[in-house]
């Protein structure tokens, strides 16, 4: 059924939105700027602003070194336990540490060491390129005859789930995939692929970077072994905020951290010369945590827990359906193609629209139309829907301005050269 295309209809949807008030909890200094890139960097929560002042002026400025015994030392576990509630894990199965890539490296090497005699790693060509770099580096470092098998997507949009399952055998040590893939937003069936990998004795590692905070995840129900994820997208933890890792409780003593460091030492202030790993997940810490950036993750997680992931997912699905209907009516005739799954059950919370002039259209949106999306080669304009603060009016305005950029050929003033950051 066709939807009304007017701005009034978008305003009506906003008036009916029971989560709309959460937008007021974020810093929105320019109401004319439409922010559609929360899937790359989330907005700044107002609570984070307040907490940052307290963290710097009081905790650091006044309490000084005493802060370590007043919450700093336990922050990785405390915030990890809150993230665990967003991804269906136990409190002692998630910890905040390092970057996503470093956590991936630690877990991949730990898994390969534990899976002796198995030589294959399996992933797909929709995974983060940075994840593939880490896998390649781990294989080169170990020098144990491992090989990386990259299964190709049939269309560059949908994950090759059937082909992955067909490739699994008793030589697979680890299957690792992005739960929500970064270009198209395709959403894997986590439980189905995890079962398939376990049936041949493989461990499974999921990258949750484009899922956590936007898509309900239940790692325990799916019996997932390992997972990683960032905190600066839908968790609104801030640029470069530390990442998190998950290890199923039963595996924590079986796996060892390949980057041993004093924060993972059993008795770190004993200063013994021989390393003995801490019990449980803390052994996967390495160096001193960056307390300021780590602590500032917490307010954003608290807002998500307050709103509830089921409610956020329901709004995300409604918004992505609305955006796709507007694409079909307004943008498809202008040459835009849908580079995301049409089935709402198979996509995360961002929509990719392709156009042969995608890069220059993206630049015109940013510089002339006050719309901030991002661009991913070869032609994807990614529109991130962060249901905590993205409004239906934002979506309508974005589509209207996209249409204007193409109809008026505003993109023609921009060069074809790709900027450093897109």
How would you describe this structure to a colleague?
The chain is an alpha/beta fold and 422 residues long. It is built from 12 helices and 13 strands. The radius of gyration is 22 Å and the shape is globular. It starts with 6 loop residues before the first helix and ends in a 15-residue tail after the last helix.
Concise overview:
The protein contains twelve helices and 13 strands. By secondary structure, it is an alpha/beta fold.
Uncertain regions: pLDDT < 50 for 5+ in a row?
A: none
- Helix/strand order, N-terminal first: HEHHEHEHEHEHEEEHHHEEHEEEH
Shape: globular
Overall SS class? alpha/beta
User: What amount of the residues lies in strands?
Assistant: 5-15%
The major beta sheet can be summarized as: 7 strands, mixed
Rg (CA only): 22 Å
Q: Helix count?
A: 12
State the fourth-level CATH superfamily of the largest domain: Type I PLP-dependent aspartate aminotransferase-like (Major domain)
How far do the termini sit from each other? 35 Å
What count of structural domains? Answer: 2
| CATH top level label of the largest domain | Alpha Beta
User: Strand order across the biggest sheet?
Assistant: 2-8-7-6-5-3-4
Considering DSSP H and I runs of 4 or more, what fraction of the residues is helical? Answer: 25-40%
What is the mean pLDDT? 96
User: Based on the structure given, which CATH architecture of the largest domain is correct?
Assistant: 3-Layer(aba) Sandwich
The total beta strand count reads 13
Looking at the structure, the CATH topology of the largest domain is: Aspartate Aminotransferase, domain 2
């Amino acid at each position: 059924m066709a939807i009304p295309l007017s701005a009034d209809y978008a305003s009506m949807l906003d008036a009916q939105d029971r989560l709309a008030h959460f937008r007021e909890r974020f810093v929105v200094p320019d109401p004319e700027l439409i922010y559609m890139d929360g899937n790359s960097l989330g907005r700044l929560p107002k609570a984070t602003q307040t907490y940052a002042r307290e963290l710097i002026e009081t905790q650091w400025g006044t309490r000084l070194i005493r802060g370590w015994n007043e919450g700093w030392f336990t922050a990785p576990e405390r915030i990890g336990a809150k993230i665990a509630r967003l991804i269906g894990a136990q409190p002692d199965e998630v910890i905040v540490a390092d970057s996503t890539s470093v956590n991936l490296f630690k877990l991949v090497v730990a898994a390969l060491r534990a899976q002796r005699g198995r030589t294959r790693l399996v992933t797909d060509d929709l995974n983060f390129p940075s994840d593939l770099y880490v896998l390649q580096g781990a294989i080169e470092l170990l020098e144990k005859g491992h090989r990386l098998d990259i299964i190709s997507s049939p269309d560059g949009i949908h994950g090759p789930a059937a082909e992955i399952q067909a490739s699994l055998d008793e030589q697979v040590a680890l299957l690792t995939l992005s739960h929500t893939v970064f270009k198209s937003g395709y959403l894997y069936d986590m439980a189905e692929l995890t079962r398939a990998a376990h049936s041949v004795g493989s461990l499974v590692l999921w990258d949750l970077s484009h899922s956590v905070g936007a898509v309900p995840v239940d790692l325990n129900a799916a019996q997932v072994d390992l997972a990683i994820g960032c905190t600066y997208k839908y968790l609104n933890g801030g640029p470069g905020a530390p990442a998190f890792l998950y290890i199923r409780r039963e595996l924590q003593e079986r796996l060892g951290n390949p980057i041993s460091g004093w924060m993972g030492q059993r008795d770190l202030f004993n200063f013994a010369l021989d390393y003995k790993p801490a019990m449980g997940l803390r052994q996967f810490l390495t160096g001193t945590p960056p307390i300021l950036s780590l602590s500032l993750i917490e307010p954003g997680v608290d807002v998500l827990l307050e709103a509830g992931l089921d409610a956020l997912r329901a709004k995300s699905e409604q918004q992505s359906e609305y955006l796709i209907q507007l694409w079909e009516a307004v943008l498809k005739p202008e040459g835009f193609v849908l580079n995301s799954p049409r089935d709402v059950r198979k996509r995360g919370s961002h929509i990719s629209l392709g156009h042969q002039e995608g890069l220059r259209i993206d630049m015109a949106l940013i510089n002339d139309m006050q719309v901030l999306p991002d661009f991913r080669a070869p032609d994807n304009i990614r529109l991130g829907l962060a249901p905590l603060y993205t409004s239906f009016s934002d979506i309508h305005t974005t589509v209207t301005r996209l249409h204007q950029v193409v109809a008026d050929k505003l993109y023609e003033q921009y060069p074809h050269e790709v900027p450093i950051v897109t």
